[in-house]
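About this split. The held-out portion is used to measure sequence recovery: a designer receives only the structure tokens and must propose an amino acid at every position. Recovery is the fraction of positions where the proposal matches the reference. Here is one held-out target exactly as it appears in the evaluation file.
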């Protein structure tokens, strides 16, 4: 844990269609016309064009927390408490929980991914999602995150084992950022460091550090409103745009 607070961008991925077990868990617990969002926390808002799925920890218990009269967030209890403390919820005080839902029951849920080339993406499992960081929800950008690329590759390879449809993990990976080495930096590094699965933790840590440094300091946006601009310059602009559009908000811990 660092000493300085992490300033995350919390993104609102609206639920379009619940997976059957999640639908069961939520039934009758919230108003018919309420919107529910999965809310991943990210440090790389400028990569959101490249979202292909949304990860949850299969054994993590999430809550459906009331953010306002007609909006609910699927996040960990820990994140809900932090958000309440940061004044993110309409009502002050102890966050109101409408229902519990297990990560594994969320798998297959369809959500809207703001800014992404893929408008609708699926909720998929990732064992390494920590309940003790961010919101416990992670949006997946395999073009620029080695962890995400290793996980979607694993999921596509062993779809039956993970109880998912192969095509849910096989959305096209579109180049978002050009760096001196590649316009698909995460896949490039995963191959170069011979990372075979999400279990290659040590190499993934190295890939993550390389990708972060090169992407941030030498990357140039290939897509979106800030195409041609340096990542360093585009990052806060994309974040502001998402926040202004009501599709994201600042969350820190
Ligand atoms: B990042 P830091 Cl493209 N468990 O977002 C595991 N990982 C989590 C998490 C949790 N509970 N909450 C957030 N994260 C991930 C994009 C991204 C991210 C890219 C490249 C690198 C990257 C798309 N996934 O992170 O420990 C989220 O993934 C590399 C560090 O607080 C979040 O940003 O520094 C990042 O880790 C936050 O990690």
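Reference sequence for scoring:
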């Amino acid at each position: 844990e660092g000493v300085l607070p992490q300033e995350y961008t919390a993104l609102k991925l609206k639920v379009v269609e619940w997976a059957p077990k999640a639908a069961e868990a939520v039934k009758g617990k919230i108003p018919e016309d309420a919107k529910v969002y999965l809310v991943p926390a990210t440090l790389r808002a400028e990569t959101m064009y490249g979202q292909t799925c949304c990860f949850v920890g299969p054994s993590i218990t999430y809550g459906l927390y009331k953010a306002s009269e007609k909006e609910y967030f699927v996040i960990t209890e820990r994140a809900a408490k932090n958000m309440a403390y940061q004044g993110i919820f309409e009502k002050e005080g102890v966050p109101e929980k409408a229902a519990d839902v297990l990560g594994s029951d969320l798998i297959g849920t369809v959500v809207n991914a703001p800014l992404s080339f893929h408008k609708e993406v699926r909720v998929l499992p990732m064992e390494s999602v920590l309940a003790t960081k961010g919101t416990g929800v992670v949006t997946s950008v395999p073009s620029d995150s080695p962890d995400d690329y290793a996980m979607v590759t694993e999921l596509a390879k062993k779809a039956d084992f993970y109880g998912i449809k192969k095509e849910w993990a096989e959305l096209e990976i579109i180049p978002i950022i050009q760096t001196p080495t590649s316009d698909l930096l995460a896949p490039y590094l995963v191959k170069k460091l011979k990372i075979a699965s999400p279990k290659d933790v040590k190499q993934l840590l190295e890939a993550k550090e390389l990708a972060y440094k090169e992407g941030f300091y030498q990357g140039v946006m290939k897509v979106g409103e800030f195409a041609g601009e340096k990542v360093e310059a585009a990052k806060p602009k994309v974040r502001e745009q998402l926040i202004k559009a009501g599709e994201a908000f600042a969350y820190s811990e």
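Annotator remark: Residues 7-252 form a domain with the Isoleucyl-tRNA Synthetase; domain 2 fold (CATH 3.90.740.10).
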